[in-house]
């Protein structure tokens, strides 16, 4: 009888423990609803890495990178609302996303993170470094500029209270088939790897078009060049080889960022973590170690 009582007690304790674990997961989920993004955490190293994907991209863009690093680093991946199947909630805004991510880092007490961003995520890393210069250890920018619009329009100036109606109509007015065709054409210049092209297209097809249009409009109306003077932390900037053909203009964009290292990849495509994987990982490892 004593043996049966002990077994019953163990079973009760196990059920109670599992219940508490499930409740704790529910609490974490509720907490994440306070932010315009979801967070996936992997690895348990002493150093913290925060990964931000690009426009309409999934956190899966970092899978191979995290596979290489999670044994020695703790990795946080940020999936913003409206992109790659993550439901859109509220009014999307890059400035709100930036402030919310800074709040998350502070509240979760993530010490000295290295923020790694691709494309739009790289712009956010630059914005965070110049707005919250004491929040992080360093940043890594993968194929992004402080002002993409200024790279192709020397007279570009940020417009106050920009009306995004036309861009929203362009995004939402296409049929599903038209939008897919457009994304397939774009993906061909983003990566040379067919299976990766399919992933890129699928992420965009799963994105909320209206929310994406609003972010696209804000992104193209962004100019961080002057405020980079406020950034203190070291920055590794990895750019595709096409940008290497306009180094003078690229260098002028980053002039205000004092502590930077600009490197040009052997690949001309945008997704360097795919098409220039070995080069990209070598640069990344050497910088974050």
TrEMBL record:
InterPro entries: AB_hydrolase_1, AB_hydrolase_fold, AB_hydrolase_sf. Signal peptide: none annotated. Residues 49-153 form the AB hydrolase-1 domain. GO terms for molecular function: hydrolase activity. Pfam families: Abhydrolase_1 (PF00561). Keywords: Hydrolase. It comes from Sphingobacterium kyonggiense. This is Alpha/beta hydrolase. The keyword Hydrolase applies.
